[in-house]
Design goal:
The protein has six helices and no strands. The chain has 183 residues and is mostly helical. The mean pLDDT is 86.
């Protein structure tokens, strides 16, 4: 296996973090073309999440840095862009607070579990939650009616689904962590 394949997943995670200010900058400009560009860059960043995991597993190049960087990059991407969408009036603050709060809580629980010698693997519901969050953010980035098509309503429906999945997957993960602590 080449060195390049070993480090490519970590490079993709780093790229995801690097793209956050680019997306925020594009969203800070008014006009559908900037928000469309932000949505496209966001979609690319979300794609790197899927790609880094596939490459790491396929080429058996899972690293300690990758185990830390990948979920951190995901959470930074989702949280940062959702907070920006709140500031633009495109997403309700309370929903974003619940989603971001869950991400922080789960990250803390994972850190405690690692300290105790346990790895908390990502669950299927958490992965599905991430995909729905990505889709919701993509459509919310596009704006109210870019090019005459109303997508904000669709983005809000997806955000509600993401919120439900966020609470569900977070609860399941926390209960699992507590159950392991009790045994």
């Amino acid at each position: 296996m080449s060195e390049r394949k070993v480090y490519l997943p970590n490079i993709l995670s780093g790229l995801r973090v690097f793209l956050i200010p680019v997306i925020i900058l594009l969203l800070s400009f008014k006009g559908p073309r900037y928000h469309t560009a932000a949505a496209i860059v966001f979609a690319f960043a979300a794609f790197t999440d899927m790609a880094d995991g596939l490459i790491a597993r396929r080429y058996n190049s899972v690293t300690s840095l990758g185990k830390l960087l990948d979920p951190l990059a995901d959470k930074l991407l989702v949280s940062s862009i959702l907070i920006m969408l709140v500031s633009l009036g495109k997403a309700p603050g309370w929903m974003v607070a619940v989603i971001v709060g869950r991400e922080i809580l789960v990250t803390g629980m994972r850190g405690i579990s690692i300290e105790r010698g346990r790895v908390v693997a990502a669950m299927r519901s958490g992965k599905f939650k991430t995909v729905v969050q990505y889709l919701a953010i993509f459509f919310l980035c596009l704006g109210d009616e870019p090019y005459g098509i109303s997508l904000r309503g669709f983005g809000m429906i997806l955000l509600w689904i993401a919120l439900i999945l966020t609470v569900y997957s977070g609860t399941v993960l926390l209960l699992d962590c507590f159950k392991k602590d009790m045994s």
